[in-house]
Amino acid sequence: MGTMLERFLVLPEPKFKKLLRSSPESVDDCDSQREAYRYAMSDSFVMQSQLDCTDSPLPGTRVFDIKARAAVPIRLDILNYEVCRTNRVPLYIRLSGYLIKRLTGGLESFEKEYYDLVCSAFLKYIFQARIGNVGGVLVAYHNTARIFGFQYIPLEEVEAHLYDPGDGSRLFNKCLRLLECILEEVVGVYDQQSVRCTFDKRDHVDEMVVFVEPANWVEETEGKPCPMTQLEAKVENHLNDAPSRGSMAVASDQPWLIHWAISHSAADGEDIRSSLTQSQSRQLNALHFPAGVRTLSEMVAYWDNIHFGGPISKPSTGDLSSSSSNANASEDKTEGDEWRTLNRCLAFRTASPQIEYLRRLAREGHDATMRAEAEEASSGKGKVVWGPADFLRDVVDDDQNRQLVRDVSESTVDGGEVGGVSVSVKESCDSAAGVGDGSRAKCSLDGSSHGH
């Protein structure tokens, strides 16, 4: 969904419609425009980062990434993505009705979404940004029905939340060097064969386990089960030659040394595979039954009819159906259990009280949206839709005030044309130069016409 939303933001409407599942396929619809990338090198890696957008008024590299950030209920309850209707009457409201209503607060707020970004996705953002040498990320907050707003987050702000007062580049280099050491050991396990790796970092244990197995092993040809090796990586952090916690090392500007050790487990193949199964079960994120689904047999029928606006697919014939028959046979025995499994890659659980509360907020948000649309329709006031800007002029006057002037040729109000509009944003050069450092520029908005 994130990839499609990024396309939605940067492509003209005719081109974007060709990407929809409901549009007919055509060999002429292929986009011949090349994607833009930047590359970074280390001792052993060549790293690639796709570039999304550029904007000349931005400081630094003037390149930024677009990140689509789904609201909290979409992330926690992903199967409730729309309104289920029967004969055009809403049967139950799913999470497309959830709203972001305020700046601060525990839920329905930008503060909640930003806090979750800091706790989860910021670390991924910062590593991607360093590989691509971009200046920041433009985050689009959304549910499955609307976009609530955009926020440009400079690289410095991301690092301040993660490392302050540490140095993000030092941590990136340390992590990259450690990964090189681990993968150098991995590629030597099976004599330069292609391998499949599973990384597992257990909580509260200063050790990372790597399970390595040949990727192209065929038991019938080889005459024996696929082998597996377990590597165990341990590190110790030292500041000024004294042992230190990792969090202290990140925040310090003193000389930082990492002592690492990578060892091969002496356990036999069955024990290693059992450990891998346990690691995969910990990493498996169970999905909640969507609203209106109470049993595993109903979930199987629901799963087979997911079509996302395209033609309804035929019932699956792979692992899902074969395991669903076993699930139906044992459903009476597992009806009271919290977890249900369709296959080894999918697990489901009944909705928790937290999820039920988020669904209630979505129903209330949907009702509020319907009331607002009805009031707007009865008032007779039309929506103001601004057209694209013709160009953006960057002017600095005699007082060293920087002025960005955007001339809009036309806009539409209920299908009618409105005269040309000139909107200018004035800000001091000093403030604009400090935006990348987390300071807030003072701006004034002047315009000959205003829209809501």
UniProtKB/TrEMBL annotation:
Matching entries from Pfam families are given as: Pet127
Instruction: Region Disordered: list its residue ranges.
Output: 314-336, 430-452
Q: Name one GO biological process term.
A: mitochondrial RNA 5'-end processing
Q: Which domain of life is it from?
A: Eukaryota
Q: Name one GO cellular component term.
A: mitochondrial envelope
Protein name (Swiss-Prot/TrEMBL) = Uncharacterized protein
Show the taxonomic lineage. Answer: Eukaryota, Fungi, Dikarya, Basidiomycota, Agaricomycotina
